[in-house]
Amino acid sequence: MAKKILVSGVKPTGRPHLGNYFGALKQFVDLQNEYDSRIFVANLHALTSVTDKSELEKNTKDLVLDYLGIGLDPKRATIYLQSDVPHVTELAWIFECITTVPYLERAHAFKDAETKNKEINAGVFNYPLLMSADILVHDADVVPVGKDQKQHLEISRDTGEKFNRLFGETFKLPEPLILEDVATVPGTDGQKMSKSYGNIIPLFATDKEIEESVMSIVTDSSAGVPTNVYAIHSLIRDKESLDKLYEENRGKYKDLKEALIQDLKSFIGPMRERRKEWEESGDKVRDIVVEAGHKMRQVVHSKMMEVRKRTGLIHHE
Ligand code: ADP
Ligand code: TRP
């Protein structure tokens, strides 16, 4: 039996951190055997905020290496660029024509952008519909994402449903895979780990960066246990041995930070090495992405032909 289809993407907007990994990326690797996985670099979405050519190019290459570094296997998962499948922009346009403005105005991401900046580009407004196209064009069964993408997936389902209602059953409605039980990963200052707060531990940190960022963790404590250190540590060590360690070293913040540094080095080191190997593999990575784009265009072609027929965009056979 054919495997179920998994689709997901990440915007190429900078170096990923532990929060991104445990909140979203890790699922891609965990699920790649079970599903026909199609994982892309959301470079068209990134255009809503990045208008510097070299920055977008660099971030795109980096994200592909990040995918390979965390352990996505290009023999099992298809790693491609969103812009290599231009069908999604066509489909997004069609979705824009069946979606009302008030509906899109209710999107959290749009509302947040609006409170920060009045001059929002139309890409930000239409963002959820391009995302719907990314997903629906594949007839995806599941979409693993971080918690913050929950509403976008609801919009994707609503949009697929609306199209089906207007033009006949065409799209499968995808199920979100959201790790509800993963608590928000705290950063070095105890707030949510986020690029915009400058409190991150990079996923591919060097040993020096690991040492510096761990040493900078704010040690708020409760009964001798430094809560922020413990919370980050709990991501990479099982609860039993973690509790034993923190029990035995109650109040010894420096020693506990040292232990976290060691564990982070063992956790990050192999991923960083794998990323480096791919980085040094010559044209291999480029070939993988080009090939994947080609394959994905072929895969979505028949769905788009069906959409064009159903909407009356084709009057010849
Ligand atoms: P940032 O806040 O650093 O800009 P993004 O908004 O780019 O991160 O998030 C990308 C993905 O990583 C999202 O799916 C989000 O749910 C997840 N994520 C980001 N930060 C965290 C965190 N601190 N804890 C858990 N998941 C996170
Ligand atoms: N909006 C997602 C994010 O910011 C990225 C994304 C774009 C995506 N298209 C997608 C995720 C399709 C899953 C499926 O993280």
Could you characterize what this model shows?
- The protein starts with a strand and ends in a 6-residue tail after the last helix.
- The model has no long low-confidence stretch (mean pLDDT 95).
- It has 13 helices and seven strands.
- With 317 residues, the protein is mainly alpha-helical.
- It folds into two domains: 5-182 and 282-311, 3-Layer(aba) Sandwich (Rossmann fold); 195-277, Tyrosyl-Transfer RNA Synthetase, CATH 1.10.240.10.
- The strands form three sheets. Strands 1-2-3 form a three-stranded parallel β-sheet.
- Helix 9 packs antiparallel against helix 12 (253-279).
- The protein binds adenosine-5'-diphosphate and tryptophan (TRP).
- Tryptophan is lined by residues 7-11, 42, 45, 131, 134-135, 143, 145, 149, 152.
- Tryptophan binds next to strand 1, helix 7 and strand 4.
